[in-house]
Amino acid sequence: PAPVVVVSPSQQQAVSEIRLSGSLVAARRASLSPRVDGLVEQVLVDAGAKVDAGALLLKLDASLEQFELARLAANLEEASADADESQRLVDEAQRLTRDNHLPKTELALRQAALAAAKARLEAARAARSVQRQRVQWHQLPAPFAGVIVDKMTESGEWVTRGTPVLELVATEDLYLDVQVPQSQYGALSENTQVVIRPDISSQETVPARIEAQVPVADSVSRTFRVRLVATEPHPALLPGASATAIFTLTNQDQSVTMVPRDAILRNPDGGFSLFTVEEREGQLLARRQRVTLGRESGSEVAVLSGLPTQARVVIRGNEVLRNDQPVKLVAPTNP
User: Among 34, 105, 148, 288, which is most exposed with the fewest C-beta within 10 angstroms?
Assistant: First the structure.
């Protein structure tokens, strides 16, 4: 008799899959433009460049604004000096007034002059802050991390506010929208197991979760939009690329028979079979069973039909077995 290792099939809840295709979309995509009109002095990036949030992308010629900033800085110094002198005169008047060497009206006049000097100082400080901001607006930073997908200007060109000069796309924050048929929409929830299979790398899957379900059906296709978000980054998830969402649904009311993958043999005609062990007239015999398979789950495969109830399935020594061949059971050995 041929030595074989057998196991008993297990029962698991019935599981089905829904596969739907869609396109990956960047959650953030921006056409960038400067806040002021000006001459492009330097474009610091090109298409395909990866940038961090806050990275400098473009500079406009700000020489005139710099001169104006210098003038306002000088005005601020002058106003500060006037305020200091007015404060000194008030302090002096307060001391003289206490000694009755100066009339109180003079003190009041100096205090009014001090208030006016302080007001001019604050106005000069505000004007300088405004001009600093104008100078800053001549630089275009990246509002978020991503990739430059298009450059629409060059050094020496005149650009105006609202004119797109660069297009930036975030490659990390992506989502996948799929249209779910109304017959299956009710089976989905935020706890539904789902993975994304990028078509760029069809052998890999990325764990995902349901971000949103739009409870309004398309009146033509009778489908509902479901938005998925990957729970971990993956280099194959690229904006604009196609991908497949695979939803795994568990039926609490049905069960399915599962056997180890090692028990499955491929037939010459492309079908599948496995060997079971039966006792006949006191002898153990191998019986070949043609089976229909379902989905895989880890190291096990679902058998939809063809497997007798309470059968013992051969998982070792089945490669060279023949139908009705005598067998003997041996204990499994650790690899």
Answer: 105
